[in-house]
Amino acid sequence: xxxxxxxxxxxxxxxxxxxxxxxxxxxxxRPYWKPILGAVLLSLLISATGLxxxxxxxxxxxxxxxxxxxxxxxxxxxxxxxxxxxTGLMAVGFVANFFQVVLLEWAGQRVMHALRQRLFHHVxxxxxxxxxxxxxxxLVTRLTNDIQNMHEAMTSVVVTVFNDLIQLFGILAILFxxxxxxxxxxxxxIPMVLxxxxxxxxxxxxxxxxxxxxxxxxxxFLQEVLGGLFVIQIFQREKDTAARFRDLNEAxxxxxxxxxxxxxxxxxxxxxxxxxxxxxxxxxxxREIVQxxxxxxxxxxxxxxxxxxxxPLRELxxxxxxxxxxxxxxxxxxxxxxxxxxxxxxxxxxMPSQVRGALTFEGVSFAYDSGHPVLxxxxxxxxxxxxxxxxxxxxxxxxxxxxxxxxxxDPSEGRILLDGLDIRDMNVHALRRQIGLVMQDVFLVPxxxxxxxxxxxxxxxxxxxxIVQHARLASFVAGLPQGLDTQVGPGGMDLxxxxxxxxxxxxxxxxxxxxLILDEATSNVDSSTEREVEKALEEVxxxxxxxxxxxxxxxxxxASRIFVLDGGRLVETGTHEDLVRKDGHYARLLxxxxxxxxxxxxxxxxxxxxxxxxx
Length: 615
Prior knowledge:
This protein is 64% helix and 11% strand. By secondary structure, it is of the alpha/beta class. The protein has 3 domains: 17-178 and 325-341, Up-down Bundle (ABC transporter transmembrane region fold); 180-293; 359-599, Rossmann fold (3-Layer(aba) Sandwich), CATH 3.40.50.300. A hairpin with a 2-residue loop joins strand 1 (359-369) and strand 2.
């Protein structure tokens, strides 16, 4: 087990000044411009109501409370009017804020839903080579965390930042209008606050990125350890693994404390600056009141506006890091969306109405990495309905041969013909509908047995019953409490290796392809189960062109011809008897196979009759 700790998502943060990125983001938001515009207009209304409230306090103090010339009744009437207007504006702000949140969340959820659908649809159409180079955890992060980061930025930052900026400039304008001298004093404090905000945003950005990176390392390490826990326990690496986790956890703890220290300094500092500004206002404003140059209501309103002025400054500094993280997520998402899809359809989309199943490889060569060929000048022809076997040592190129036939990859040289037509000129989906693949490891879809057989097809009950019979699953299904509606896979009952293989054959019969590929389909089953699999194979192979990749003698002997690969080259072709008499690569592989599995082929019946004590 390696300890690379996976892929680090926060290697860089987004550039706020990247106009190209903002242009693409605006392109995603464009279909939902109406609710976003509505949220922006509501933010103007929210800002207007918030900025009006302190001024109403000034009117109440100066117009009623301190007006001793007015009668008690007149002063109460004036306060009542101010209080009603104050309550009405608060109600308007509440309603506007409610609808702004609803509009933003509706638009944000719709945008992220559409983007997640688009991204998932794009990912499942990428070629296999892409997934060989990109870890699954990275792609899962694209579809979950990165999408959520963009949603958070749009719903809680974009309009909120717009609202904070309007509020900040509005407050400064009102303060200058009310008393330019007090505002001038305030402006001596604001530069220090802005400098502290800029400094904090830089430190918080690095701290935030470091904390996310440490957490990503812990998650990757946990996934790696829990996925290979049996290896750790077998080789008794619990102590070493716990020590490595302790190092990762302590690094994450230190990063968390660093972020706490940064926030712990910045927040009190802003409060100190706010208190200093209030002290200046009280000192200077109080002197002005005593001298009769300022009213008490003006000072109270001024202090309220000062409090409101520091709030957007504090929020803008915190949201800067969120915007950068969201831009980094957007950049990664767009990078994935820009990845070209695999196996593009040719200019001439050709697919015969009746596929016979004749396959021809003409000088096919392929390399996963340049300079390291896996297939080299492979040429052969398979007649419709013929069953051939492909054998060879590990790494000879057997599975790669199937991958280029399925168009998971395209040959670097040569071509593959189906009924005389180059498969690169065919529609990929139509081509793959004609090819059935039964692999060594059968993937179970979480769902019922019926859903695992039919997949995306709807079959009549009589047709499905016939498929179950031909796949030798009838007795197994009959013993299930809910029959074909029994839940299998994750969350349901588990199937044995043989039952999974029979299920894979049922899938092939349900799809009814003209070409069948068996990639080590019987390697995971015992000899008794293999008999049932062999009977099912007779039904599955009937009338189909078949390519069998296998080591077991019984499976290989069924083939009319055997292709022997060695080092990516086709070195021998012939029947089983001819190749044994030739005493070449195939005979050597056969001797090695028989030497490695004596019990499986030769002594199974003898072992079954041994007494219990002997066993």
